C-alpha cells in the first residue's frame, strides 16, 4: 500500500477529506462581492475622466484617486481591531451603508473640493466593508479549501471589473455622469441587502492573554509583496484611459474587460494549486507575469498590444492576490483574522494610493510610456521582496 504524500508546510496533507465549500452563505458572499465591485469598477476608471473634464491637472487626478485609498487605509487597522473584538456582521453592514450614501452623493459633487470630501467618505466606507467582508469569508470557508475559496470569492470582484469599466464608460458617454452615479448607488444598495441575509459562524473573541491588535505581524511579508503589485496597478488604473486615448483607443474599458477575464480564468486554478503545492509555484510566475504585462503596456501602440498586456497582467494578479491573501490567514491565529485582513488590505490600498499619486507626479515629467516602465520596475521589486521574505520557505503551518 502506498504511503501518503508528506504535507507541505502550511497546507493540508494529501488525502485530507475535502470540506464543503459552496454553502448558501459562501455563495451569498460571492454575490455580494460581484454586485458591490461592479458598481465600484464602474466608478474607478471613470472618475479620472470626470475630474479631467473639470479642467484638473494630472497631479490632481492622481490625488483624487489617491485620497480615496488613503481614507480606506486610515480606517482599516481600526476596522480589523473592531472585527476581532466585536465580530464581523455589524461592521460589514455599517461599511456598506456608508459606501452607498457616498456613491449617491457624487450626484452633487460639482466642484473638486466637494469631490475630495466625498472621496474621503467613500474611501472610509470601502475600507470598512472590504476588510469586514474578506474576514467573514475567511471564517466561512473550510481551512483545507481556503486557497480555492479565496480564489472563487475574488471572482466577484474580477467579474465586476470585466463588465464595470465598460458599462461605466458607456453610461457616462450616453447618459451623463449623474446617471452613472445613480446606477452605482443602486448597485451598492443591492449589495447592502445581500449582506443582510448572510449568516455568520459563531464569533469567538480572542482568548485570554491574546488581545486584538491594529496589525498582524505574521501578515507583514505577504503585505509587502502585494504593496509593490498594487503600486503598479494604481498607476495603470489611474492613467490607462489617458494612455489609450493617445493611441486612438477611446474606450479603455476593453482593457479592464480583458484583464478581468484573465483573472477569472487564473484564480480558481491557482487557488487549487496553492492548496495542494504551496505558494511558491503560484506566486513567482504570477509576479513575473505582472512585470511582463506592464512592460508590454508601456510599449503598446495599438489595441492588440493593450489586450496582450491586459491578459498577461491579469493572469499575474489572478495568481498572486488570492494566494498571498490565503497565505495571510494560514499564518495567523483564527482570533487575529481581523488584524490580518486589515494588514494585508492596508498594504493593498497603500500601494494603489501611492502608485496613483507618485506615478501621477512622475507623469508630469515623463511620457506615459516611460511612466509605465517605472511601474514595471516597482512590480519587479515585489518579486524580489517575495523571494527575500515569504518565498524563502515553503509556507507556514495553518493556525486552524
Explain what you see.
- The chain is mainly α and 400 residues long.
- It has one domain (24-201, 212-392): Up-down Bundle (Growth Hormone, Chain: A).
- The protein is built from 13 helices and no strands.
- It has helices at 24-43, 46-53, 58-86, 89-105, 112-140, 146-175, 177-196, 220-245, 253-277, 280-299, 303-330, 337-362, 368-388.
- It is globular.
Concise account of the structure shown:
With 400 residues, the chain is mostly helical. Helix content is 75%, strand content 0%.
Properties at a glance:
400 residues, 75% helix, Growth Hormone, Chain: A, 0% strand, single chain, globular
> CATH architecture, please?
Up-down Bundle
Strand content: under 5%
**Taking Cα atoms only, what radius of gyration do you get, to the nearest Å?**
20 Å
Looking at CATH, which topology would you report?
Growth Hormone, Chain: A
Number of strands: 0
- Outline the low-pLDDT stretches: 1-17, 394-399
CATH class assignment: Mainly Alpha
- Count of DSSP-assigned helices: 13
> How far apart are the termini?
30 Å
What is the average of the pLDDT values?
84
Helicity range: over 70%
- Give the biggest beta sheet: none
Oligomer class: single chain
Anisotropy-based shape = globular
**Which structural class do the helices and strands define?**
mainly alpha
Order of helices and strands: HHHHHHHHHHHHH
